[in-house]
Write a structure and sequence with these properties.
alpha/beta, five-stranded parallel sheet, 13% strand, 566 residues
Length: 566
C-alpha cells in the first residue's frame, strides 16, 4: 500500500492498484519463469507502480535493459519485452530474438507495448521476420502515474515538442484516454474548463469518447467537481524562470527524475539546520523526550510503537538538512544572484527591448548554452518578441560561439513561440502582468500570503488563472484571456441518471488541473499553497504530461541535446 497516495481527499492509490492489477494479469498470462527486457525509459515510471517484489511474486527472475546484439544469458521459459511503440526499438528486439532463436528454440517471447499497441511497430517486426516468434502481443495502458497524494504525471517527455513543433497530437489522445480512465474510477467530472488549442482538442476527444461509451457509465458519485485543462503555451514564461521553492531548487540544481534525485554522497554528514528544519528537529526531539513521561505499560507500548516512525523522521531530517546546505552553497553565490536579478528585471519589464549585457557576458564566457537560451526566451516572452537588431545579434553570437548546428535549435524555439521577432510595437505582457497581479513587490517567503512566493515575487500565470477561475470566475478577466493564445471554453458533462452530488456544509470543492505540455515543481507548490489556504474552499489535484524545469524543457526542443549543451 502506497500510504502517500491515499492521504489526500482523492485517494490516488485506487489508480495505482488498478495499474498493478493489470500488470499482474499480464504476467500471469506468461506461465513459467520470466525475464523482463526493459526499454530503459520505462523503468522509472514502472518503479512508481510496482516494486521488484511484485514482479518476483509472478516468477520474474531476471531483468535486463534493452540493448542491441545478444541478450544476456537467463535460464527462463519466457522473455518479455516492455517497450514504447518506437520503430527503432523494434529493430533492437528483432536482433535479440534472432540471437535467442538460434540458441533456445523452446523459449516463448512476449511483447508489452506501453502505453498503446502500434500497427506500424508490428509491421516492422513482420518485415524483420520475427513477428511470428511472439506468443503474446499486448498493450499496457500506463497513462497517468500517481507521483504523490495530489500529483499525477504521464511522463510523456516529447508531448510539448510533438504538439508545437511536429503538429502530432498523439499525446493529446493519450491524455483524453487517461482522463476517461480516471472518470471510470472516480466518476464523471461535471464541469470542464479550458484554455488553449490543445485543451480544446482534449475536451472534444473526451466528449466524443463519452458519447461512444454512453451505455457503460459507472454509477460513481463524482470525486472531482471541475477539470481545468491548460495549454503550456498560454504561459511560456513560468517554466523558464528559476524555481525558488525547496523542491524546485533541487530540480533546478540536481534534476528530479521519477521522484529520485542523485546527490553528492560526501556531503551527507552532520550539518547545522535551517529555520524550517530546526523547528521540525525540535518537534522530533520533544517526541523522543516523551519516553521519560511514559509510566504505565500502555504508555511505554505506545512510545515503542512510535519509535520506528521517529527514527525514520530523524534520519529524513538529517538528509534534508544536508540537501538544504548543498542548495544554500549555490543560492548564496554571486553567479546565482546575478542570473536571478536579470530574470526579475525581465519579469518586471526592465530593458527588455535591447541587448542584455549579462547575456552578452555569458556568451563571451561560454556559459552553458541552455542557460543562455532560457534567458533569451524569457526576454522574448516578456517583450512580445525581440527587436530585429537584438534578435539577429543574439543569433549571430550564439552560432559563432557554440556552433552553426544550433541554427536548428533556434528555429525550433521560434516555431514554439519561445523566441520570436517582434512584429508589432504593442507588448501585451505588461497588461497581463498588471491585470492578473503577476508581480508582487513584497513577497513574504517565510510566511507566504500569496502564490508569488514560489518565484520570489512572480506569481505563475497558469496558477493565477486557476485561482481566478475559482473566484471570482473567468468572466472577470475576459479581456486578458483574449490576449493569451487559443480559445477559452466551458463544457458540462451530464452525470449518470439518478446521481446528484450533495455538498456537505464547509466541504471543499475539488478541481483537477491538467497541464498539457508540462508543469514545474514551483507551479505545483503554488497550487498546494492555494489548497491549504483556509478561505479558498478549493482543493487542487495536479496532472500533467510531464514534470519539467526550464532546462529539461529547452533540452526537449533542441536538435542535438548532447554534452556541449548541458
Amino acid at each position: 500500500m502506497a500510504a502517500h497516495l491515499s492521504y489526500g481527499r482523492v485517494n490516488l492509490n485506487i489508480l495505482r492498484e488498478a495499474a498493478r492489477k493489470e500488470l499482474r494479469e499480464f504476467l500471469d498470462k506468461c506461465a513459467g519463469s520470466k525475464a523482463i527486457v526493459w526499454d530503459e525509459y520505462l523503468t522509472g515510471p514502472f518503479g512508481l507502480i510496482a516494486q521488484y517484489s511484485l514482479l518476483k511474486e509472478h516468477e520474474v527472475e531476471k531483468m535486463f535493459t534493452l540493448k542491441s546484439g545478444k541478450l544476456p544469458s537467463a535460464d527462463v521459459k519466457n522473455i518479455i519485452f516492455f517497450v514504447r511503440p518506437r520503430l527503432e526499438l523494434m529493430d533492437i528486439i528483432a536482433e535479440n530474438v534472432f540471437s535467442e532463436d538460434k540458441m533456445h528454440s523452446s523459449r516463448d517471447f512476449h511483447i508489452l507495448f506501453v502505453p498503446r499497441r502500434s500497427m506500424l511497430c508490428e509491421q516492422r517486426l513482420k518485415e524483420q521476420g520475427v513477428l511470428a516468434s511472439f506468443v503474446n502481443i499486448d498493450e499496457y495502458i500506463l497513462d497517468l502515474i500517481p507521483y504523490d497524494g495530489d500529483l499525477l504525471s504521464m511522463e510523456y517527455e516529447s508531448a510539448f515538442r510533438e504538439c508545437y513543433l511536429e503538429n502530432d497530437q498523439t499525446s493529446l489522445y493519450h491524455t483524453a484516454k487517461g482522463l476517461m480512465t480516471l472518470q471510470a474510477l472516480y466518476g464523471t467530472i461535471p464541469q470542464i474548463y479550458g484554455k488553449g488549442d490543445c485543451a480544446r482538442h482534449v475536451a472534444n476527444m473526451m466528449l466524443r469518447m463519452k458519447r461512444e461509451f454512453a451505455g457503460s457509465q459507472n454509477q460513481i458519485l463524482p470525486v472531482f467537481d471541475t477539470l481545468l485543462l491548460l495549454d503550456r503555451n498560454i504561459d511560456l514564461l513560468t517554466p523558464l524562470a528559476t524555481q525558488l521553492t525547496y523542491e524546485g531548487l533541487i530540480d533546478e540544481i540536481y534534476g528530479i527524475t521519477n521522484g529520485y534525485v542523485k546527490l553528492p554522497p560526501e556531503k551527507f554528514a552532520q550539518k547545522k539546520q535551517g529555520a524550517a528544519l530546526s523547528k521540525k528537529a525540535k518537534i522530533i526531539s520533544a517526541a523522543f523526550e516523551e519516553r521519560h513521561n511514559a509510566k504505565t505499560v500502555g504508555e511505554i507500548k505506545q512510545f515503542v510503537s512510535q519509535l520506528p516512525h521517529m527514527q525514520a523522521a530523524r534520519s529524513s531530517l538529517a538528509n534534508h538538512t544536508s540537501i538544504a546546505e548543498l542548495i544554500k552553497d549555490i543560492t548564496t553565490s554571486e553567479a546565482f544572484f546575478e542570473n536571478l536579478t536579470v530574470e526579475q528585471e525581465f519579469m518586471t519589464g526592465v530593458d527588455t527591448d535591447k541587448v542584455n549585457t549579462y547575456i552578452e557576458d555569458c556568451i563571451a564566457q561560454k556559459d552553458p548554452l541552455i542557460k543562455i537560451l532560457r534567458l533569451m526566451c524569457m526576454q522574448s516572452v516578456c517583450n512580445n518578441g525581440l527587436k530585429q537588431k537584438v534578435f539577429e545579434y543574439y543569433k549571430r553570437e550564439i552560432l559563432q560561439t557554440y556552433g552553426y548546428e544550433h541554427i536548428l535549435t533556434l528555429n525550433n524555439l521560434e516555431k514554439a513561440s519561445l523566441l520570436k521577432l517582434q512584429t508589432s510595437s504593442r507588448n501585451n505582457y505588461p497588461t497581463i502582468r498588471k491585470t492578473l497581479k503577476l508581480w508582487m513587490e513584497d513577497a513574504n517567503e517565510q510566511n507566504p500570503n500569496d502564490i508569488s512566493y514560489v518565484y520570489s515575487g512572480y506569481a505563475p500565470l497558469s496558477v493565477r488563472l486557476t485561482q481566478v477561475l475559482a473566484r471570482p470566475g473567468w468572466r472577470s478577466i475576459e479581456e486578458v484571456l483574449k490576449l493569451l493564445p487559443g480559445p477559452h471554453f466551458e463544457e458540462r458533462q451530464q452525470l449518470p441518471a439518478g446521481l446528484h452530488k450533495k455538498r456537505q456544509q464547509g466541504e471543499n470543492r475539488t478541481t483537477l488541473v491538467f497541464f498539457l505540455g508540462g508543469v514545474s515543481y514551483a507551479e505545483i507548490a503554488a497550487l498546494r499553497f492555494l489548497s491549504q489556504m483556509e478561505d479558498s474552499g478549493m482543493e487542487y489535484i495536479i496532472a500533467t504530461t510531464k514534470l519539467l524545469n526550464g532546462t529539461t524543457w529547452i533540452k526537449s526542443l533542441m536538435d542535438r541535446p548532447e554534452s556541449q549543451i548541458s
